[in-house]
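Researcher: Go.
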Amino acid sequence: MTVAAEDLFLAFEDGPAVGTENADGASPVLLICEHAANRIPRSLGNLSLDHSVLQSHVAWDPGAYEVALRLAGSLDAALISARFSRLVYDVNRPPDSPQAIRAASEIYDIPGNQNLSAGQRNARIEAIYRPFHETITGLVEARAAKGRTSVLVTIHSFTPVYYGQVRPVELGILHDRDARLADCLLDCAHRFTARSVQRNQPYGPEDGVTHTLAKHALTHGLLNAMIEIRNDLIRTAAQQAELAEALSGMTGCALNALGVPTAKTPIDRSD
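Model: Structure:
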């Protein structure tokens, strides 16, 4: 029997490449967290990186998964997350992108990602990228078959200092060519948070960060947005709860403005 490359790449002990929680949630929102984890498959060791690098923002989005999980509970929304580090494969990049498997990230070289063969790259694509996006496609299609729409919202965090530059933005609402949901989130933001909220910051579609949205939402006309949270604001459980509550309110407010029925009514915190 022939063993597929992806089966060799992930050991049984690694577990699945994708996590799905609350798949039957009543909310139309489908939350996606592409950079939820900093785990490395056993077959790659530690990519020849120090522990400190694997704990840093180059390996994952610290706090993003915890916020997404709380938000899923608040909205009664489904959540799909990647279970391995973006240094293994960044599922928010297509297979032909140089950023999908980085040989270097910010100031760090990634030795375990250098000089990979086509076969080694393909093994990661098949083991990490394809299952992740097939899971999203499967859930969106299953909902559509039941007459349910999906609103895609991806949750990320970003470092306060990047290449030595301080980033004053605290919360970013990102979008590609479809700005419907982002516009309403920005209009609603001041009612639920005093944080500095900006459009397409600290990244924008020109940086290639909207791949998941483009692949699953833009091609089907689904409402969508990407949310970036500065990671120093979500280091503790209390901070994560605060931001999740604000995002829950903003999301409910935005969907109400767009006429999309929601499972729960947002609580206005502006008073």
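Model: Residues 169 and 196 are 6 Å apart (CA to CA).
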